[in-house]
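Hi all, posting the design record for the shared folder.

TITLE: backbone redesign
STEP: 1 of 1
STRUCTURE INPUT:
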């Protein structure tokens, strides 16, 4: 298929001219439409005339670049300007010539598969997409962007944040549980949740509030050196040691000499 990329780019540029500046570019538009009309096939010329003849003279030639309103559009697909008929209906006088870069493979052929985005852009007259396919050496197929195989399916690792909670106190017991053995029995073993005199209890372990049984509390005991018996024994030892040192430190007196008898 012959589609002149230079004339396509010129049509897009003229279609973006503001209405206040159209009079300065009208000669360029008329010249471009004449070249496109002369190079089109008879069928394309007839279809172009059917689109332009109903327009009033005040809308010509710029009406060839405007999209018709949806209420006035009769055809398949979205409303497209009439000039697109001439752009896609050019008569190819030299099908074997591909050096100019203005020829596209047939859209139904195997070679036309990479050009499907360009065909779709031309069918709906998406000017931004069409300009992306115009290269310095001819029409250019879009370069596919490499997509990682796991894109969109990566597992996001949530950082582990340690949470420190203070241990709660053991729940208070009810009067019923107190009557069920909290008082130590004769052998010093209790049957409730509170340990008995010998530190052994067979009741349920207290809960720390998160559903996990808390470890049993260790009984607090007085250090050995602070017990009364140990303190008393230490005082006695210190006293005896002091007396022994005092006795050893005193000087011994000389033994009395016997008095000689007088004859």
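Okay, here is what came back for every position:
SEQUENCE:
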């Amino acid at each position: 298929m012959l589609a002149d990329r230079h004339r396509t780019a010129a049509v897009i540029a003229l279609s973006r001219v503001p209405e206040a500046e159209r009079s300065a570019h009208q000669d360029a538009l008329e010249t471009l439409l004449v070249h496109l009309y002369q190079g089109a096939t008879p069928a394309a010329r007839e279809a172009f005339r059917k689109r332009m003849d109903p327009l009033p003279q005040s809308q010509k030639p710029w009406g060839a670049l405007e999209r018709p309103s949806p209420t006035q559009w009769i055809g398949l697909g979205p409303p497209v300007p009439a000039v697109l008929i001439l752009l896609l209906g050019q008569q190819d006088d030299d099908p074997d010539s591909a050096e100019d870069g203005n020829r596209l493979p047939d859209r139904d052929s195997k070679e036309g598969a990479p050009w499907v985005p360009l065909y779709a852009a031309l069918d709906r007259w998406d000017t931004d997409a069409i300009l992306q396919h115009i290269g310095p050496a001819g029409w250019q197929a879009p370069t596919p962007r490499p997509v990682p195989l796991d894109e969109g399916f990566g597992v996001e690792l949530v950082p582990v944040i340690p949470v420190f909670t203070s241990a709660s106190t053991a729940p208070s017991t009810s009067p019923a549980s107190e009557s069920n053995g909290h008082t130590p029995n004769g052998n010093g073993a209790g049957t409730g949740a509170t340990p008995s005199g010998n530190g052994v209890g067979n009741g349920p372990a207290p809960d720390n509030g998160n559903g996990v049984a808390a470890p049993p509390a260790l009984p607090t005991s007085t250090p050995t050196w602070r017990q009364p018996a140990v303190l008393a024994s230490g005082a006695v030892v210190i006293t005896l040691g002091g007396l022994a040192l005092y006795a050893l430190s005193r000087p011994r007196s000389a033994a009395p000499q016997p008095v000689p008898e007088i004859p």
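COMMENT: Residues 228-249 form the longest helix (22 residues).
Let me know if anyone wants the other runs.
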